[in-house]
Amino acid sequence: MLSTHYRKPMDWTEKKREEAEKTLRKWRSLANSAKAGGVVDPEVLNALEDDLNTPSAITRLHKLAKTIEAQQRSDVSESVIDGFAASAQMLGLLEDTAGTGAWVFDGAVTHISLPIVLTELQEALSSIRTAAMASKDFSEVDRMKAALIDAGVEVRMSKDGVDLVPGPDFDPDKLEGLL
Fold it and tell me: Are 57 and 88 in contact (CB under 8 A)?
């Protein structure tokens, strides 16, 4: 909703909601290493001072995120990450209570990076799937996928690989014994 100026009609669709969730997940991952006390980006402040222009503030956050992503291969400045996080938090976008339970693991925000156990399970499922493609026996893949879904994990498999996304009903206790 912040992507539309408050004086304009809102064009809200399921596709836009999904895009917004994807963006927030990416931003939380980028801000994962941010330290408290970052300085809010001046361009974000200017946008908000200009008739609460949240679409411009969001555009600036996209630019900051691209800068961080581009510099991740080299050494990204901590102040850039801290400023990005502070700016997004000022808009309420990275708060612990923002979003759904899919962003919470054992009561602590994961900042959308996968909890360690899900990362390990994702790698394991990928290996099992590769072996199953060779043997044509997908029973172990189906068993593991069913257990993950039962634990509230969305399992996304494509030709590019396997992605596990904790859903709103994510219950890490149900993952015991899967590895």
Answer: no
- What string of DSSP letters covers 71-140? HTTS---HHHHHHHHHHHHHTTSS-TTSS-GGGEETTEE-TTSPPHHHHHHHHHHHHHHHHHHHH---HH
Which residues have C-beta within 8 Å of that of residue 140, sequence separation ≥ 6?
128, 132
Q: Which CATH number fits domain 14-99: 3.10.290.30, 3.40.50.150, 1.20.120.640, 2.60.40.1120?
A: 1.20.120.640
First to last CA, the chain: 40
- In the chain, where the domains are located: 14-99, 116-175
Q: For residues 23 and 9, what is the distance between their CA atoms, to the nearest angstrom?
A: 22
* Strand, coil or helix: 7: coil
Give the C-alpha separation, 32 to 26, whole Å: 10
User: What confidence tens digit (pLDDT) does each residue in 67-101 have?
Assistant: 888 876 556 677 788 888 889 888 888 765 444 44
Q: What is the pLDDT of residues 101-155, one digit of tens each?
A: 444 333 333 433 445 677 788 889 999 999 999 999 999 999 999 999 998 888 9
